[in-house]
Amino acid sequence: MSHTARSLINCTIEQIKPLTPVVYEITLAPDEPVDFVAGQYVKVVMSDTDARPFSIANAPQRYNGAKPGNHLFLQIGAQPDNPYAWEVLEKLRAQDSVQLDGPHGNAAYQPSLRPLLLIAGGTGFSYVYAILQQALLQDPDRQIELFWGVRHIDDFYCLDDLNALSEQYSGFRFSPVLENATTEWQGLTGWVHTAVMTEISDLSGFDVYVAGRFEMAKVVRDDFGARGLPASQLFGDAYDYL
């Protein structure tokens, strides 16, 4: 990767694919392979003074055999009433290439013998999805619990892939959590971190990775700490700011 003072990455925008009416997957092809770790993020450069962060939604080497570093995937939740993300999407739609600043992040995947607990709210899923891919690649027999919480059932934009992975890897269990549940919903309901605590009574033995709203990350830290989770086993970019 070519480095400048800002570690800029020049990328061709290959595809913008809607995953839901408000979530889009962006496929970017860097000019040169990018050296990053699953769980890091990049910033989309809007101007000299404005760069906006988004998690890289894939591992350096995807579990499906794609070549390392050849593509970066972003999953952006964007609506007109959220200018911060919407302006990024509009910029990407309007041009063929983009500059990224990065990679960044101190909450990337750490190999460990402990079981893995991944918790995501909304499009925070992109962060834990990258870590899931890396963990399955490095240690396919590891115990992995993934809890993904969304408001509405249509917000689950990766169910087929996750269900396929849970069938392929015996140690991986996926638990979707629906905040606004319908009468037909048979799964977990309410806040995602509360659902975790109803399903797993002892959290002290897990490595926990969290992505979502800052308020959620803070509550996870407080409540899981009270359940015996050491701070050294809790990872998330939000904790650099909380």
Describe this structure in words.
With 242 residues, the protein is an alpha/beta fold. The chain folds into two domains: 8-104, Elongation Factor Tu (Ef-tu), domain 3 (Beta Barrel), CATH 2.40.30.10; 116-240, Nucleotide-binding domain of ferredoxin-NADP reductase (FNR) module (Rossmann fold). The chain is 24% helix and 31% strand. The chain contains five helices and twelve strands. The protein has helices at 83-94, 125-138, 159-168, 192-199, 214-226; strands spanning 8-18, 23-30, 41-47, 50-55, 72-77, 97-104, 116-121, 144-150, 172-178, 188-189, 207-211, 234-235. The strands form two sheets. It has a six-stranded antiparallel beta sheet, with helices on one face. A six-stranded parallel beta sheet has the order 10-9-8-7-11-12, with helices on both faces. A hairpin with a 2-residue loop joins strand 3 and strand 4. It is globular and about 50 Å long. The mean pLDDT is 91.
